[in-house]
Design goal:
The chain has about 450 residues and is an alpha+beta fold. About 55% of the residues lie in helices and about 20% in strands. The two termini are about 80 Å apart.
């Protein structure tokens, strides 16, 4: 019998008949084999009845268990055992479907959130009270140049006490941190906040590379100063130069001049004029630092560029006992940039290298190009000259700063602006009298 109610009624009737039969046998024949057999049948019927009724409880338990373990693959169909059970199966399936939809929505929201977190430019890291990393996004790995991180203490190997600094820093307070890694200095902005999840204390750290913003701010500030200075100086020099030219013309037109007086006046006026013109040329040269043209990007061969540079340098290296060679890997490497501006930067840096080798025996300059692990084009200029002291290292890109007697102090600053206009960076490492390397990343 398929209907649940009929099944229950039939089992109860059968159990009742069995009990009556057992009673009849007991009062008429006493305890004999048939009475005992009837008792066993009664026990079996009771067990089967209980088991049959428990099937509903088991199904309910399975339903709750599937919800507990997020297993929504089950499907209930009680249509064959009664209308009331058919309603239960419909509601069970609806509940499971609703839980399934809710779980799918949460998973989609989580995937969306994870995708956003992985693609934002801010580095994010969370770790527990033991320093065990719970989450780290791509930006954090990229900024610190790491592939993985299991414990926050491992950051101490990247920069001294960086892991301890992040673990012990005050929460909800933005802190600047100078990261020095592989000879490259990077300014970081770090912010941390604590939160609890599942009864466990966690720290969320936000990390931003603000080196580019700092450099751009510095350059912009210098450009503003330069514009003001050139404007004021040019306004003063122009009339002086004009007046000097006028005075000289008047002196030239004098018909009966006193020879000695005229000679002195002419000499003085010529001096004023020459100095004014020199000062105007000097200021105009500095003005170029504020007029960096927008790069005209195109693909060009690095090997061809290096060949042109070698031809230009050959005459400058005659009789100086300096070896120059270049290396391009791969030989057919091409980069997308303004070849004229990049050539200007390289020539400027190579001239600096030549000057640094003026008192070095067996001087050597190497120009190289390759693609790094992040698919960036890298140009390197290295030499074994006098190098750069620690004191001067942080100031070499400051406009007008120079350690040369006849230097203008705009070469490296101009080069930095050109590379920044390409979206790249320049950094330098130096071991005086051993090796100095300027690295350009585009």
């Amino acid at each position: 019998m398929k209907n649940f109610r009929i099944n229950i009624i039939a089992r109860i009737l059968l159990l009742t008949i069995s009990i009556i039969a057992a009673t009849f046998l007991f009062f008429n024949y006493g305890i004999d084999i048939w009475f005992i057999l009837t008792l066993l049948i009664i026990v079996a019927e009771i067990v089967f009845l209980i088991s049959y009724v428990d099937k509903t409880n088991n199904e309910l338990a399975n339903f709750l268990e599937s919800i507990n373990y997020s297993d929504f693959t089950l499907h209930y169909d009680y249509s064959k055992i009664g209308k009331s059970f058919e309603k239960i199966s419909i509601q069970f399936n609806k509940v499971l479907e609703k839980f399934k939809e809710t779980r799918n929505e949460k998973e989609e929201s989580l995937k969306y959130l994870q995708t956003v977190i992985q693609h934002i430019g801010v580095g994010l890291l969370s770790f527990d009270s033991n320093g065990e990393v719970e989450f780290i996004n791509r930006a954090f790995k990229k900024i610190l140049k790491i592939n993985s991180l299991k414990n926050i203490s491992a950051l101490n190997s990247i920069s001294p006490n960086l892991g301890d600094f992040i673990k012990d820093m005050s929460v909800r307070k933005k802190v600047n941190y100078k990261l020095i890694s592989s000879g490259e200095t990077t300014q970081l902005l770090i912010n941390a906040t604590d939160f609890r999840m599942r009864g466990q204390l966690y720290r969320l750290v936000a990390l931003q590379n603000i080196q580019s913003e700092i450099e751009e701010t510095e350059i912009e500030a210098w450009q503003k100063i330069i514009r003001v200075l050139t404007h004021e100086i040019m306004n003063s020099i122009t009339p002086i130069s004009s007046l000097a030219s006028t005075l000289k013309s008047l002196l030239d037109e004098m018909k009966e001049p006193n020879a000695e007086t005229i000679e002195d006046l002419s000499s003085a006026v010529n001096t004023i004029k020459k100095r004014s013109e020199g000062l105007m040329s000097f200021v105009d040269k500095y003005r170029s630092i504020t007029k960096i043209p927008k790069p005209n990007r195109h693909n060009f061969s690095v090997t061809s560029l290096f060949n042109r540079i070698k031809i230009l340098l050959d005459s400058a290296l005659v009789g100086k006992n300096i070896q120059f060679h270049y290396d391009v890997n791969p030989i057919n490497l091409e980069i997308n940039a303004d070849s004229d501006l990049i050539e200007q930067v390289l020539i400027n840096m190579l001239n600096n290298a030549i000057q640094s080798l003026s008192e070095t025996d067996n001087g050597s300059i190497t120009l190289s190009a390759y693609i790094d692990n992040n698919s960036h084009a890298v140009l390197k200029i290295s030499d074994n000259g006098a190098g750069i002291s620690d004191e001067n290292m942080e100031r070499i890109f400051v406009p007008f700063y120079t350690t040369k007697k006849e230097g203008s102090g705009i070469g490296l600053s101009l080069s930095q602006q050109i590379i920044r206009a390409h979206g790249g960076r320049i950094h330098v490492t130096s071991k005086p009298n051993k090796e100095t390397v300027f690295t350009i990343k585009l």
